[in-house]
Amino acid sequence: ARKDLGPTIKHLVIDEADLMLSYGYEDDIKGVLGYLDRYQCMLLSATLNDDVETLKGLCLHKPVIVKLEDAESGAAGGEGHLKQFYLPLRPDEKYLVVYGLLKLKLLVGKTLIFAKDIDSAYRYKLLLDKFSMGSVAVLNYELPFLSRNQII
């Protein structure tokens, strides 16, 4: 029996999008998309090749492309690449750890923090705004498209 994921899945993030189709996952992706109703999708890719364009056509509606500039222009912390990591934390630790990482400048350049829900995202925003941690914005599916586009 087909399970409807529409009411429970609000966001779909596909990392290494440039590799997904080359590894033969097109049918799997189509299968997952068939279970979703309304969702916001992010494709993350090191390159923009034909496979990414195909994937973009499968799961994005009115896509916005965000490109990193070369390292010489100061993007990506001046190191020329993105860094990604995951920290398994207890709920009472997460806000303090994020604050510490930013305050101690252990995270350099632009930082994207994924939160489990909109309330958590706004808690991060309030904390970081309170301590003047730079420009902080919450991007979520409840915002109108033009507002989301302006934030990016």
Summary of the model, kept short:
With 152 residues, the chain is mainly alpha-helical. The chain is 36% helix and 5% strand.
Feature tags:
RNA-binding, two-stranded parallel sheet, nucleotide-binding, 6 helices, helicase, 2 domains, 152 residues, mainly alpha
Q: In which range does the helix fraction lie?
A: 25-40%
Helix and strand content put the structural class at mainly alpha
Q: How would you characterize the largest beta sheet?
A: 2 strands, parallel
Order of helices and strands: EHHEHHHH
Rg over alpha carbons: 17 Å
Strand content: 5-15%
How many strand units? 2
Quick check: average pLDDT?
79
**Side-by-side strand order of the widest sheet:** 1-2
How far apart lie the N and C ends? Answer: 39 Å
Number of helices: 6
